[in-house]
Amino acid sequence: MKIQILGSGCPKCKALASATEAAAKELGITYQLEKVTDMAAITGFGVMTTPALVVDGKVKVAGKLPSVSEIKGLLSA
Q1: Which domain holds residue 51?
Q2: How many whole angstroms separate alpha carbon 72 and alpha carbon 19?
């Protein structure tokens, strides 16, 4: 599973990355985490507000910081 965190590296972006890693580990998922900070790449996903979570090329959430349990639901869907 490829997980991407889209954002400038702000505190919310870092928090999303940490929460996503925790959720993936709790689910026992094998994953590759990539942090995307290039604004052109971020807008290429159609994302205008960060942080955003992308799973296997699909934007799952943008502009908010979901809880670990919410992320677990997004990863297992």
Answers
A1: 2-76
A2: 9
Contact 6, 54 (CB under 8 A): yes
- 20-76 tens-digit pLDDT: 999 999 999 999 999 999 999 999 999 999 999 999 999 999 999 999 999 999 999
CA angle 9, 3, 61 (to 5 degrees): 70
Domain total of the chain: 1
Q: What is the CATH number of the domain that holds 41?
A: 3.40.30.10
Q: Cα dihedral sign for 71, 77, 47, 57?
A: positive
φ/ψ of 18, rounded to 5, equals -65, -45
Per-residue pLDDT tens over the stretch 3-36: 999 999 999 999 999 999 999 999 999 999 999 9
